[in-house]
Amino acid sequence: MFSYLDRFLIFLQTEKRASPRTVEEYQKDIFDGIDFLAGILRVSDETLQPEQVTPALIRRYLSHLTDRGLCRNSLLRKLAAWRSFFKFLCREGVLRDNPLRHISSPRREKRLPRVLYPAEAERLVEAPGVSSSLRLRDRAILEVLYATGIRVSELVGLDTGDLDLAGGYLRVLGKGAKERGVPVGGYAVEALK
């Protein structure tokens, strides 16, 4: 199974252009499943073969994850990794039938994010202080996150060339390598200067 997994991970990187983090998460999720399935079948992880995986085993694995207290969204992520992996195996001719084809997904949990009150947001942004260059950097990071609502992963990917202080916007590379312009408020612009 591991040789197929290696090919799948290369496929994700090269053809799907998945982010390194996505590839790493898929690898972890599939390793976790391989451990469980191999244990149930009483074979080693290395000798487990894709054709040994049945819909009943996948349901048992999902039940095991639920019993472990895994939240629904994490379970959905693991299931998505396995669906992609087996879809890849079918496309490559390793399998004729996808054992996950008839496995339905549980509904995604919808939780509203906790909103910060203005006083809480102000305390958060001012927490680093301004007594050193590192503290100024941290404060600018918090100002940008608060002012724009971009993801931390998007912030980490920013470069100075993505910033237009005069125009008051950032060029952000989001999910799926999609680029978008995001307005930046005055406080964040000042913090970045």
TrEMBL record:
All copies of domain Core-binding (CB), residue ranges: 1-90
InterPro entries registered for this protein in UniProt: CB (IPR044068), DNA_brk_join_enz (IPR011010), Integrase-like_cat_sf (IPR013762), Integrase_catalytic (IPR002104), Integrase_recombinase_N (IPR010998), Integrase_SAM-like_N (IPR004107), Tyrosine_recombinase_XerCD (IPR050090)
Principal subcellular localisation of the protein: cytoplasm
Keyword Cell division applies: yes
One of the record's GO cellular component terms: cytoplasm
Transmembrane regions: none
GO BP terms: cell division; chromosome segregation; DNA integration; DNA recombination
PROSITE patterns reported in the protein's UniProt record: CB, TYR_RECOMBINASE
Keyword flag Cell division: yes
Matches recorded under SUPFAM superfamilies: DNA breaking-rejoining enzymes (SSF56349)
GO MF term list: DNA binding
Keywords noted in UniProt: Cell cycle, Cell division, Chromosome partition, Cytoplasm, DNA integration, DNA recombination, DNA-binding
Annotated Tyr recombinase domain residues: 111-193
Pfam families xref list: Phage_int_SAM_1, Phage_integrase
Coiled coil stretches, renumbered: none
Function per UniProt: Site-specific tyrosine recombinase, which acts by catalyzing the cutting and rejoining of the recombining DNA molecules.
The protein's name: Tyrosine recombinase XerD
Organism: Ammonifex degensii
